[in-house]
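Go through this one:
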Amino acid sequence: MAEAEQESLDDLPPSAKLVFKVLEYNGPLTQKGIVQESMLSARTVRYALERLEGIGVVDEDVYFADARQNLYQLTDAAPERPSESDADEAEACCAE
């Protein structure tokens, strides 16, 4: 049997990508914080977090201020944003 292809961030639905960006820009947040920042429904955020955890780009930790909630943050394995030099190279390549 052939191995199933590993899912990546590009393969996820737009809601999961939005949650990823919210965590990227705001840092660790509770699910309630993600709902407020993204303006998505709680159910959609739960599904997006599940998908992001499935590909290993989001970690879930205990939120010590309120142990009933969890704190979500990007892992070290999360794809990084391109640096300015990479963006400059891409522009130079496309401008030719």
Summary: Residues 11-95 form a domain with the Arc Repressor Mutant, subunit A fold (CATH 1.10.10.10). The first helix runs from residue 14 to 26. The chain has a mean pLDDT of 82.
